[in-house]
Design brief:
The structure is a single chain. This protein has an eight-stranded parallel barrel with strand order 1-2-3-4-5-6-7-8, surrounded by six helices. The protein has helices spanning 8-13, 28-36, 48-51, 63-74, 95-109, 123-131, 147-150, 160-176, 188-197, 218-221, 238-254; strands at residues 20-24, 41-44, 81-85, 113-115, 136-141, 180-184, 202-205, 213-216. It has 267 residues and is α/β, with parallel strands linked by helices. The protein is built from eleven helices and eight strands. The longest helix is centred in the middle third of the chain and has 17 residues, at 160-176. The chain folds into two domains: 8-231, Phosphoenolpyruvate-binding domains (TIM Barrel); 237-267, no CATH class.
Amino acid sequence: MASPRMSVPRFRAGKGKRRLVCLTAYDVLTARMLDEAGVDLLLVGDSLGNVVLGYDTTLPVTLDDVISHARAVMRACPRALVVADMPFLTYHITPEETLRNAGRLIKEAGVDGVKLEGGESRVPHIRALIEAEIPVMGHLGLTPQSVLEFGGYRIQGRTPGDVDRLVADARALVKAGCFALVLEGMPAAVAARITEAAAVPTVGIGAGVSCDGQILVTPDLLGMTERIPKFVRPYADARAITIDAVRRYADDVREGRFPGPEETYDA
């Protein structure tokens, strides 16, 4: 009997009971493979700007971009929970606009929830979504959409004041109704403190082993990207495998070895 589809309450209830496995997905083929492997949560991340669309940052990603890729992921009919990122400037202006944009992700893409970056200043936006019964995942620490403010992708939580602010932000997001928090790019001890203080699961990325779960950008995990972040452990070298396969195919085409009799239809 197939296992039931992951839900927001089931994911939230995983805190303290089991480690939660999360990865990004941007297309139907990848989503099917990750789901078959038993991933708990698929994030249609705005990281698609970097690894799919070729941008230097996530800032140019549009709501329509995320909707298009989220639709593809949902066509895989995954058992995993599917959450979509809200792109830059889709939740920064008014709670009403945030609700309209998140509503498009729910209605047009069919995802189970949305993720947005930032701390206590996002509380009015999160509350508007929760009141509309849209599940929200928070994101603290190294928030990629803040790259201009941070002056680059810089580790957060280096000073006692910054740590206290992150803990306060986490408590505010949980109180506002977030069902989980992504903790990115912070010292392991800071993530451990937030994890202990938060009543919902924390999902780490470059934040140490104490989080309730972990997430990586799937092309990094598979070794597909040219520059793999320090905190990533590549579990394959898909880039080298792909280049080698294409080179062998190209050689066979050029030398007349492909297609062969077995790849040719009879008259």
